[in-house]
Design brief:
Layout lengths: L4 H10 L10 E2 L3 E5 L9 E5 L11 H22 L3 E6 L10 E7 L26 H14 L3
Antiparallel strand pairs: 1-2, 2-3, 3-5, 4-5
Helix pairs in contact: 2-3
Length: 150
């Protein structure tokens, strides 16, 4: 296996060393985390707890739990950040992250056209001064955690 930063982050969560926003909710198969490098509050990521590189490698149990989580997280985001809907995206192609993870991205009612659809990714990998702050991510993480049902 090539280097996998995602696996390192999972190990940090397993050790109890992750900040709240990076360990919002953990299930048997998935971690719910807030993206650290986005300008959009509520950009969540569902991360497979075991290293798999493609969706077809998921077990049926992992897939069932994923489906439930996508729905739950989307409902919670609608209630907590007021999005009109969520985008669900999966690539597992980023350098250092050849690990299945799903982006659950709030599409806000007033989302500018230049950030709709796949152009939303312009709001990921932004400079430090444009990123959602840790306090805001932790506040949202607390609200999500209170509303997520295992």
């Amino acid at each position: 296996m090539t280097e996998c930063v995602t696996c390192e982050l999972i190990a940090r969560r397993d050790a109890g060393n992750a900040p709240l926003w990076d360990s919002i909710h953990r299930t048997a198969y998935w971690d719910v985390v807030h993206s650290f490098n986005t300008s959009l509050l509520g950009w969540l990521v569902l991360v497979s707890r075991r290293h798999i590189a493609a969706v077809d490698e998921m077990t049926e149990a992992e897939a069932i739990e994923l489906g439930k989580l996508i729905r739950q997280v989307s409902i919670i985001l609608k209630n907590e950040v007021g999005c009109a809907k969520t985008y669900v995206v999966q690539f597992a192609e980023a350098e250092g992250h050849p690990h299945v993870h799903f982006h659950i991205i709030p599409r806000m009612p007033d989302q500018a056209d230049e950030f709709r659809g796949p152009r939303i990714f312009q709001q990921l990998g932004v400079p430090d001064d444009a990123r959602v702050g840790e306090v805001a991510m932790n506040d949202l993480a607390e609200r999500i955690r209170r509303n997520l049902v295992s």
